[in-house]
Amino acid sequence: SVPREHLGRPVPLDQLPVVDDGWRQRHLHALQTAYGMAPYIEHVRPEVEALLSREWRSLGALAVATCEWTHRWLGASCEVVTASTLPGRPDSLGAIWEAAGTAPLLALPESADRDRQRLGVETRILRFDAPEYRQAFDGFAPGCSSLDLILNHGPRAAEILRAGTRVEPSRGAA
After folding, report:
1. What's the pLDDT score for residue 173?
2. pTM of the predicted model, to two decimals?
3. According to DSSP H, which parts of the chain are helical?
4. Which residue of 1, 8, 10, 90 is surrounded by the most CB atoms within 10 Å?
5. CB 165, CB 124: distance < 8 Å
């Protein structure tokens, strides 16, 4: 994890300072140790090094940058929007929903019914069943990060993700 400054009060991620305690080097060392033999390490490592070498003003800025990096590698076509850029800087799912728009809410199976009832909006369920794929080590460990998939399959990572993803209608009406 990335160390953050503990301010003793709730702080939005875009205002939460990152502590520079050598975490960048530890992360890069862990990446090389775990994925040094992965097929796409030579393509991915320079980009990750560049991403981690930057000075981050906040944990939120780092999180957005890593999401955008992953978004680019997976060839995603949707726009990345943060709550802090929406009108009123909403701080809850309901407030984000009100500020962001009218498209159906995409929710995980464990929260779809609750979110639909609480927000009163059309909800669709996002299900992901990880297909087995070749990894840099023996066997298959499900639940690894998108970085694992990108390091092992490069441009095919999005295709593998899509193979395990389905969107279903929610059981109840809004």
Report:
1. 53
2. 0.85
3. 23-35, 41-53, 59-73, 93-100, 112-119, 146-153, 157-163
4. 90
5. no
Residue 20: name the closest of 6, 2, 47 by CA. 2
Residue 88 corresponds to which tokens in the numbers above?
Answer: 């009123």
Cα(97)–Cα(115) distance, rounded to whole angstroms? 11
Q: What is the mean pLDDT of each run of 10 residues along the chain (174 residues)?
A: 90 92 95 96 97 94 95 90 89 84 85 88 90 91 93 96 92 60
Q: Which amino acid is at 27?
A: H
Which SS3 state, helix, strand or coil, does residue 42 take?
helix
Q: Which amino acid is at 138?
A: D
Find the helix or strand (DSSP H, E) in which 124 lies: strand 123-128
Q: Identify the DSSP state of 154.
A: G
Quote the CA–CA distance of 158 and 146 in Å, as a whole number.
9
Write out the two tokens for 105. Answer: 């809410």
